[in-house]
Request: fold
Amino acid sequence: MGYLKGKVWTFGDNINSESILASGMEGQMDLALAHVLEFYDPEFPKLAKPGDFIVGGRNFGASSGRPAGEVIREKGIKAIICESAGRVFFRNTWNMALPVLVCPGVRSKFEKGDEIEVDIDAGLVRVVKTGEVLKCEEVPWILKDIYKAGGMVGWIRSRRKEYKTLDQSEPPTKVLKDG
Amino acid sequence: MGRTMALKILARGAKKKEVVPGEIVIVDVDAVFMHSPDYKFKHFEQIGGVKSVFDGEKVVICPDHHHFLPASQKDANTVKYIVEQGERYGVKYIYGPGTGIGHYLMVEQGHVWPGAIAVGSDSHTTAYGCIGCLSSPMNFEITEVMLSGKAWFKAPPTILVKIEGTTKRGVSARDVAQYVLGELGADGALWSAVEYGGSYIHSLSVWQRMIFSLLTIEAGGTFGLVEPDETTLEFMKGRAKKAFEPVYNDPNPEYSKVVEIDVSDLEPQVAVPPQPSFTKLLAEVVGKPIQQAYIGGCTGGGIEDMRMAAEVLKGRKVNPGVRLIVVPGTRDMYGQAMREGLVDVFNQAGALVTPAYCGPCQQLCVGNLADGDTEIGTHPRNLPGRAGKATSIYLASPYTVAASAVEGKITDPRAFLP
Reply:
């Protein structure tokens, strides 16, 4: 896929999933999109554009397991690059086909509005203003596999014959983008 | 160096001789807990052709967050859908309204045991480590686990938190757990297991140990374990749904870090907004006015938590400016509280006692805060977004919460105790 280029939204440490997607907004995507991440940056839900990236600090997506990554993906964010990520958020979000790349040292390289280039497959981040290239940590192979299948639902469908509980005779009716 | 119990349980679950930290392992799970599986069932529809979950005996549903009774027709429809779909896919254990908080029920009703591997859709599923069960949250991916009965983990290093000493009067397990969380920090245990050991931990009941295991997620941890001991095995008698073989550490296990704590002089602690790991001395926030107090949640709904609250509330009245809500952890705990006269103490003090469920921890049913309100509670989490944006939530022990409810402001409980 090579490098994708976009603008950066920066966030601090311990951005938690509950303050990304508040209680009572789960399952209401329009409402969630209108408020996503506003607790940390009120401009984000108003001004973030499809193709933008997030650069976060330590423990991005901390704490709860609620599906906050889905809202960020629906906002059109192409990837989250951070110093470290909350474990459940990290797993959830790859399963939703939104990459979360852990890239030690990345946060201090960017300011809000800077340009970034990201090669998701290779795990490389280029700081456009300086030309510096940073290497991200290796992503568990299962998550890469799921991402390539377009997310968890597509991945399960692609390997459905392995499940005894699935009806083997029924062909997939349509290819789903993601879960 | 010996192997930690976390690595040994993972190796057993993966049918491997050994696993090392950092390795990706796929294990068979013994239990799957789900609190709001509505969208997981929608995944089943998207996948198509799903006949049943992998093993109906191993899947447990408890819609504890939203619904001791549905607060709206939307919630009522959600509960109806969850129950219908659970039955459709062969889930055997679906806990109804008022049965309790899923995490307590999983342990109380024997769905997990020492050495078992469990995953849950709720992020506090590190809880069952209190009996030496390897348990961890997995939210979105639960759909996959429900179908395959398998889950993958990155085998973690283990941090040992060794706690010695005896606490002073009025300092409870929550104070100690809150102190430990503050020491670890919000990402101090990221991608790690935490084992709680030492004479203090092993002096506690299973339910008080659960506070430590459960709060491990607030430090980012994958598992929060207590090695099984006599207390564990006594507790498990006649409880587990399956015969089991506990797993213990090897002699001299290899820890990535050891944190040693002596609680002999520990003072009451509190978590201040906006993060559970923001631990302070209670003394630093004493005097802050409150509008709501909550005794319950998966770190404060146990029978001992209610006993502590009742000790403070007996013969006293809740401040008229405060709503005190008491929510037992399970129906059995509720029954025990009634038999011991605790419910009468709460009622006479002017507290509201509701059936067992998650309570106002995540304000989806009753006990919502108004903008500008301050609450103190025994529940696990105080993040913005749980109860609106313009509220402040403090987390503390049942003693402290009860004393604060009486005074109408955050209060050191020790003057209230004999």
Summary: Residues 33 and 74 of chain A are 8 Å apart (CA to CA). The first helix of chain A runs from residue 17 to 20. Chain A is about 25% helix and 15% strand.
